Each structure stands twice: as C-alpha cells, then as structure tokens.
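Troubleshooting: if your tokenizer reports a length mismatch, compare your output against this known-good record of 187 residues.
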Amino acid sequence: MSTKEQQEEIIKDQHTEETTNAEETTAKENKEDVAEEKDELTMAQEALQNEKDKFLRLFAEFENYKKRTSKERIELFKTAGQEVLQAILPVLDDFDRAQKEIQKSEDEALKQGVDLIHNKLKETLKAKGLELITVEAGDVFDADKHEAITQIPAPSEDMKGKIIDVIEKGYKLGEKTIRYPKVVTGN
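Known-good structure output:
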C-alpha cells in the first residue's frame, strides 16, 4: 500500500468516524425530540383530562342546582298561600262558633243562609289545599301531631294519656301542618 492509499484510508476512516458520530448525535437528538414530544403530548393529554373533569363537575353541579331550584319553586307554589290561610283560620274558627250558636235559633232561613256561606267558605279553602286534621275525644295523644294545652284528671282510667277535649282544630296545607290541633289531655 502506498502512502497515498494509506492517507485515503485514514481519511475514509475519519470520515466514517465523523459520519458515525454525526449519526449518533442525530439519533440522540431525534430520541430527545421524540421524548420531548411524548412529554408534551402526555402533558397536553393530562391538561385535557383535567379540563374535561372540571367541565363534568361544573355540568353536574349546574344540573343539581336546576333540580334544587325547581324543587324549591314547586314547594313555594304549594305553600304560597300559607300565610293568607293562616290569617283566615281564626276567622274560620269564629265562623264555626257562630254557626253553633245560630243552630240554636228558631229562624230556619237564617240557619240555611249561614250553613250555605259556611260550606262555601270551607269548600273554597279545601280547593286551595287546606285540610282539617281530624281529632276526637278519646284519641291517643301524640306530641308529634297534637299540641297539649293542659292536663286534667282523667274522668276514667281508660282516658289516661288520651285526648279529653279539642280546644282548637288543626289544619294541614298539602302535607305540611300549618296549625296543630290544641287539645286537653287526661292524666
């Protein structure tokens, strides 16, 4: 081999080495670029998932809000007239007492007229959702359903813990009690 050939061989080896080094560097850079792209992709996917979660939570919260306000609105409509009906109850009580006194009268036309007005008032209130809570003497006293005004000695042993007299009628508006019946109990 001549020196020229040796020089060419050395140059080829150097060139091959440089090419190999350049290829290795390029491969490393490509791997780093791919790794960076994967990291960026992973981060973007995580950010997207976080935003999806936030959106779903916000959407669920809004749906719950709509259901809650709808339910509250329905309840409001059901009991919208509660204050008015509670204000009318003493008038209805007075009307009941007046009717009892008028029934003692001899005037039949007066009795019929008052009965007609009394029934019309009761039916109108019933149409608005007002219901009478039926309580009678002899019923068992229940503190959740009745309001005890006083206790008196029971007239008989079987009347202990039971209602002796109903002082004031109780009423419900739909399912809600707006006035508990006031009763006298036996002890």
